[in-house]
Write a structure and sequence with these properties.
The complex is a heterodimer of chains A (398) and B (252). Helices cover 20% and strands 43% of the residues of chain A. The termini of chain B are far apart. The chains are: A alpha/beta (398), B alpha/beta (252).
């Protein structure tokens, strides 16, 4: 490679122009209030966001925080200069107004540190319990994992609140990190969330976005790579009920060679005006030779009146890659599957229950956190009880 | 004593050009202890008969009746038919991703019996059934029919037959796509089932090969949606020698 080439490829990182990832900036003035016509906002019901996308106050108190931080990790709330220094620690420049406002206006940062080579065996849990849906607030979280550390972090969202949040994740070289974000909000909650990870050289990052509750939940799960050999698994599981809007967007930005991204998002929808959106963006930059990427979204529509939007986007700027692919499918129950199960004596509702559990099972296993697996199975069961199992006699549902 | 009675059964499917009649008056009586082989060329409606008995929603019964021990089968839902004692071993068993074989078998057994099987004996029964069909015990942890070879799918169907223990089994081309070893294993399973008290079998096949291992009581030649001729095992031998030509010519 000549010097000119290397300069060109270095410059190239900043040069990619695309509607998928608009220009980023810390300056709030550079981010006009979205109108809903922008590509990245066209699915989101702005009217239901309690102005979080615009100019809602971000200093409200509407979330009670409790933490479980086992040995090997430290947690603190930092403010002032210390907090300001952490804004953008993942290397990300805000590309939406709410994130720029969070970075500029929210005084405190919740900082979790797992030092280098520390292996934390128990999950680290941050519980965010909403206390008031009428109040709006903003939050900034930094999860920082040193080189060759290993940990699981669970961000647990429950209760009623309207929250705009940015979570930055820094995965050190060779670290092995799982971040699970559970949105199990009450029916009236609104949650705009951007979770941005920078994955170090040869590091493994697994992110799981799990959304069941809330009036509107919109989450971006993004990754960039800090060096070659990094691997990201982006998982998602969602279950939308009548009237709910659940929107998941991922962006795997292959900024380094020989990196991997693998995304699997699965959702079920039930009830009038249940709406889910999945947008899977993958960018393979010129520098990212030898990468592998695959993204998949599957939706199971359980009742009439639901809408599932599913949009995979793959932008490839180098052909020198190992593999790139995507799959997207949205379907109702497969009549042949139900017939097969029913022909073995299983009632229709019970057959549907089996199919839905089967649909989610492999994904739940992939999350790889036993305490979460049990909870997810229970939650799926509770969601099923709302429609599919409604007419099922109690003893058959046991 | 178990009797499956099919009387003047007419069945249609929806096509782009409107309903098309596939079964044109099928009459058959299968009693306990009997094995009826239904043989016929492709497209004669053999599989339609199997799926209609089991109640697949794609097929519409326009007239005729099917009763099991006097009970109206056509009035029953698919699962009610299974609980009444009918079993269909399918030609193309369906994949159910994420549902393990052992979970599926236990759920089905619970549904058929109306109560959960006793855990200890059940595990033993399942392992024995799998082993007899040359299926590894680890089979139980795999997803139903997902990634199974053609032979594994058919052996899995027969394992279900033995475990769910229906009154009447309808086997839809269970022999198709099997090599000779798998065919023997599957036939032994069917024969174990036939050896139980009071069981009826309706065996649908394109080939005479399986009838060397499962000797039928009656053979029916099925052409153009109905039974063209019935006889004993010797009818199969004639088909083996001469094929279906004689029946197709009559029909033409």
């Amino acid at each position: 490679m000549t010097i000119t080439d290397s300069v060109r490829s270095a410059l190239e990182l900043d040069k990619v122009e695309s509607h998928l990832h608009p220009h980023g900036s810390f300056d709030v003035a550079e981010h006009p209030v979205p109108t809903g016509r922008e590509e990245i906002w066209r699915f989101t019901p702005l009217k239901r966001l309690k102005e979080l996308h615009a100019d809602a106050p971000l200093d409200g108190r509407n979330v009670a925080l409790s933490t479980q931080v086992p040995e090997g990790a430290t947690f603190e709330i930092v403010t002032g200069a210390e907090a300001r220094e952490l804004r953008g620690v993942s290397g990300w420049l805000p590309n939406v107004r709410f994130a720029a406002r969070v970075m500029a206006e929210v005084p405190a940062t919740l900082l979790l540190d797992v030092p280098r080579e520390s292996e934390v065996t128990e999950p680290i849990v941050l519980d965010f319990d909403g206390t008031d849906p009428a109040v709006t607030s903003g939050g900034h979280v930094v999860l920082r994992f040193g080189a060759h550390s290993k940990a699981v972090v669970v961000l647990n969202h429950t209760g009623s609140a309207a929250v705009a949040a940015v979570c930055e994740v820094v995965v050190g070289d060779g670290a092995d990190v799982t971040v699970v974000s559970i949105q199990d909000w009450a029916d009236d909650a609104v949650h705009l969330s951007h979770q941005q990870a920078r994955v170090g050289r040869d590091a493994t990052y697994r992110h799981a976005a799990i959304s069941f509750g809330g009036d509107v939940v919109r989450m971006d799960s993004n990754v960039t790579y800090d060096g070659p050999g990094g691997s990201a698994e982006l998982l998602g599981l969602y279950f939308a009920d009548a009237g709910q809007h659940i929107e998941h967007r991922i962006f795997a930005d292959h900024t380094a060679p020989r990196t991997k991204s693998h995304a699997v998002y699965k959702g079920a929808l039930q009830g009038e005006k249940a709406h889910t959106v999945w947008v899977g963006n993958v960018l393979i930059r010129k520098v990212a030779e030898g990468i592998e990427t695959y993204e998949e979204n599957r939706n199971l529509v359980l009742t009439d009146g639901c809408q599932a939007d599913s949009i995979p986007n793959l932008e490839i700027e180098t052909g020198e890659i190992e593999g790139a692919g995507h799959a997207s499918a949205t379907a109702r129950f497969d009549d042949n599957q139900l017939f097969y199960l029913q022909s073995r004596g299983v009632s229709e509702a019970e057959a549907q229950r089996l199919v839905v559990h089967g649909f989610f099972n492999d994904l739940i296993r992939k999350v790889g956190v036993p305490s979460i697996e049990d909870r997810l199975l229970t939650t799926v069961e509770a969601e099923l009880a709302k429609n599919v199992l409604k007419e099922l006699p109690a003893e058959a549902g046991a | 004593m178990t009797t499956l009675e099919i009387n003047d059964l007419h069945v249609s499917v929806e096509t782009e050009d409107g309903p098309k009649e596939i079964l044109k008056g099928v009459t058959l009586t299968i009693k306990a202890g009997e094995t009826h082989a239904i043989m016929g060329p492709n497209g004669s409606g053999k599989s339609t008969l199997a799926y209609s008995i089991a109640g697949h929603p794609k097929y519409t019964v326009t007239s005729g009746s099917v009763t099991l021990d006097g009970e109206d089968v056509l009035e029953m839902s698919v699962d009610e038919r299974a609980r009444a004692g009918l079993f269909l071993a399918m030609q193309y068993p369906v994949e159910v991703p994420g549902v393990s074989v052992s979970n599926f078998l236990r759920t089905a057994k619970t549904a058929i019996d109306g109560q959960a099987p006793k855990l200890r004996t059940w595990v033993k029964d399942v392992n024995a059934a799998l082993e007899q069909l040359n299926l590894d015990p680890s089979f139980g942890t795999r997803s139903v029919n997902e990634g199974f070879s053609g032979g594994e799918k058919k052996r899995h169907e027969i394992a279900q037959l033995e475990l769910l223990d229906p009154k009447v089994a309808v086997l839809d081309e269970t022999d198709s796509g099997l090599d000779i070893d798998a065919l023997k294993v599957v036939s032994e399973g069917v024969n174990r089932f036939r050896g139980r008290e009071g069981k009826g079998v309706l065996l649908i096949t394109h080939y005479t090969r399986i009838l060397r291992y499962i000797e039928p009581t009656y053979v029916h030649v099925f052409v153009d949606g109905k039974v063209a001729e019935s006889g004993g095992p010797e009818l199969a031998e004639e088909l083996e020698a001469n094929g279906y030509d004689r029946f197709l010519k009559v029909n033409a």
